[in-house]
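User: Predict the full complex structure for these chains.
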Amino acid sequence: MGEAAGTGRKSIGARRNPDSADAILDAAEAVLAEAGYSGFSIEAVARRARAGKPTIYRWWPSKAALLLDVYQRQKRVDVPDTGNLEDDLVGFLKNLFAHWRLTASGNVFRSLIAEAQSDSHAAAALAGYATGRRAHTGQVIERAKARGEVAPEVDAGIVADLIASYAWRHLLTNRLDEDQATLRTAVRYVISGISARRR
Amino acid sequence: MGEAAGTGRKSIGARRNPDSADAILDAAEAVLAEAGYSGFSIEAVARRARAGKPTIYRWWPSKAALLLDVYQRQKRVDVPDTGNLEDDLVGFLKNLFAHWRLTASGNVFRSLIAEAQSDSHAAAALAGYATGRRAHTGQVIERAKARGEVAPEVDAGIVADLIASYAWRHLLTNRLDEDQATLRTAVRYVISGISARRR
Amino acid sequence: MGEAAGTGRKSIGARRNPDSADAILDAAEAVLAEAGYSGFSIEAVARRARAGKPTIYRWWPSKAALLLDVYQRQKRVDVPDTGNLEDDLVGFLKNLFAHWRLTASGNVFRSLIAEAQSDSHAAAALAGYATGRRAHTGQVIERAKARGEVAPEVDAGIVADLIASYAWRHLLTNRLDEDQATLRTAVRYVISGISARRR
Amino acid sequence: MGEAAGTGRKSIGARRNPDSADAILDAAEAVLAEAGYSGFSIEAVARRARAGKPTIYRWWPSKAALLLDVYQRQKRVDVPDTGNLEDDLVGFLKNLFAHWRLTASGNVFRSLIAEAQSDSHAAAALAGYATGRRAHTGQVIERAKARGEVAPEVDAGIVADLIASYAWRHLLTNRLDEDQATLRTAVRYVISGISARRR
DNA sequence: AAATAATCGAGACGGTACGTCGGGTCTTGTC
DNA sequence: GACAAGACCCGACGTACCGTCTCGATTATTT
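Assistant: Here is the predicted structure of the six-chain assembly.
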């Protein structure tokens, strides 16, 4: 996972040292994985990265900014393209939950959301990120629209919102091990509705 | 709102003083309202309530327990019963958002969720609370089922989950001012689906 | 010298814990003795005393205040009373230099003077202390006046100032090992003058 | 006072740029004058001089060395030659105090003494400087000896020491505004003594 | 004329210390 | 035995400087 080079990093002149940046992000991830959000402090990250606190503060103005960078370094979970909307969305949720569960990402993102509740910078950063992701997820809906699977007047953003909300709440309440049938049911409700008239 | 009695509370003998408990809960709510989650500390609550820190720790083992108590003291938002599921759910969301937006409740609940990300006791307490609320919301669905509005095989818990998730995410991302049309659209998707075949 | 009790001090209620105060003063003295003024930091004192920094700041608003307390805890060097002014003053300087040289006091006082050059609180504290000591030394002169050794119109404060100044400069320039003959000569100049007419 | 050239100094090739040296010494003096010793940092000097820190460290190995250079750039206070020892010495003290009080020199020298208490290089530099000055002041005594005013066996160094010590202590305890009568009295004690027999 | 070498400003680096805040524990004296 | 009060140790906060390093640019000296 990298750890800091044992022999000590130095400045490489009047510009950012990418080794330090990497070491700090690695350390942040490791601290979060080992000590959780409650043990996640700039102090601890600096210690682990063998970096000075000012170096961290220089590049990441807040804990949230650091968390966001850590999160964004992770591999993205992308939405499958099976030609069928339900499968796409179920697959996406399945992949996302697995990613969150099996890597540090889940904890990172949970922490980021928590941080955003007390830090407006974090809130802004998270909002920006969420918007981007919503557009991304929205594309699946648009694809389905193009295939004629989804009614053309449907607002893809709202649908993406419903799906993302469902994912967030599972993350925040430790339900990432939800069984696939339940996920599929939830997705199906959104796609087909629950109305008696229409089923 | 209560504030602490200016002249100082004393012990009332070898049992819990309910005035102190009230003063502490009042203070907690006030601190949260004025300083937000980031300014919410046991220290600040004690100061404001003119209470000793040990008095707080004696009765509430963690910040989360205190938050939960504060939240549960609040008036509940209940689901309207209009005879129409869509109106019921939209009304519920509307009321809930207004409640969260206009009282301290929103901040309290946000804080509770945030706290639950670093404190397993908080997480457990929140999970318990959420389960209770899910059942509560689920009843609306069951009523609609009874009216024949909703297909009988529908899992009310999952629907309640979708609705609650949507609400949570709006709370956590500062979107409690969502316009009503959007809420109605989201609810309609869950009820009627987005599939082209069925609209 | 005390060191901190290994098992940890606790609060003894809502009042100052004298054990902590002692441990902190002991630690301050030890740090100064071992690391000198440049290594003398509140941080280091806290570490050594196993005390929290806030505990130190609670009772000593500045490094200078702590230094002053440490210095005043030391045994005082008093002026001998031999019945002869020259012997009294030479004896005083000899004792003072030995005291400064052989105990931590010299370093403490040096540090205090240094600190006073950048901290006005320290300067005020030092000025107050110096005034007290000047009166003290002045008494030797007054005794000599009473014996008829010293002219009655002589300003004892100014004489004390000359002597103290001489001592300070030796302290500040690492000349505490000045040989006794030189001290005696200096004292003799002040008592008998250097004028050709009068010797 | 110079300030740094607004448009930026550059290297003038493979040798020391005297403009930079001047700018740094000017800046050091200005910082000391405006912020005092506590605000005197290499960082602040570099900022003010628009110089790189390594440029400072290249030429002055320590804060003390820089201070010493700043001090030595100042105009010297010389001892008057009135043909009368008392007037010479009183005049010297008067001039010295005025110089210290009215220019940055007083602060510079105070700082230098303070610095010498924690930095052995500074101590050595200061000792060297003091020795030089002592010889200088000693010449006044020697002149008086030559005139027959002072007994031939008197050690001019010790007398100079007494006078310089008196000056130092006034500097270090913020008493540069001492009235002239007091100075004269102190000088007179050293010259004529305080003994009853001889007055 | 080209290559070398030392200097310059700039500013990042790993660190240490600053002075403050809050956490959770403890004890005292009053009710 | 509960209460207000507040001290205790601890650890994190975000900032200021420390002294070192490396850069790219500049320019006098050497080839």
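Chains D and B do not touch (no CB pair under 8 Å).
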